[in-house]
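Teaching soon. Got one?

===
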Amino acid sequence: MNWTALVGSLYAAQYSAAERLRKPALSMPPNPPATVDAVDAAERRLGVWFDIEFRQFLLACDGWPSFGTVQLYGAGDLGAGEKWRRDSACAQTYFDTAASGAVTVPDGYRRVLVGKTGVSQRFIVMMFPTRPNVAAAACWDCMAGIDLRYPDFGVWAEHEAASISYALGEEIADRRCLR
């Protein structure tokens, strides 16, 4: 996947929509790229091995405060930031009480929160291996017991970016009709 292109096109769409809709919160840019050292440090803190798609995402943009409605955490936050810890505790409560049961953690893997929405209880989690040279199990988009599985972070991000772009276009079209 070309993360630079995906991040750039989504940011351009969000920025354009922010101006048209007069919603400055939509124009929050992605963070600058992480360093390889920062990504490696996040893996050590978490005791996992990131899959190639998530690693490349962090090296293209080190998280994004507003990927649509989802905050995607950067390497420095994963396993370390206070907000990440609080949100991880909320996610754990979700998995203990409301998850569909499909989001079980296989042996040799660890569930890691990589994104969360601010308003609803929606969590983006990855199953990362705890030993090298093992493929990531999946990326999960979880909310209200509806837990959607994606083969990797890249597939989830492409789907989410398309949904965001469509929703922004619809909102702009709706506002034109109301004039």
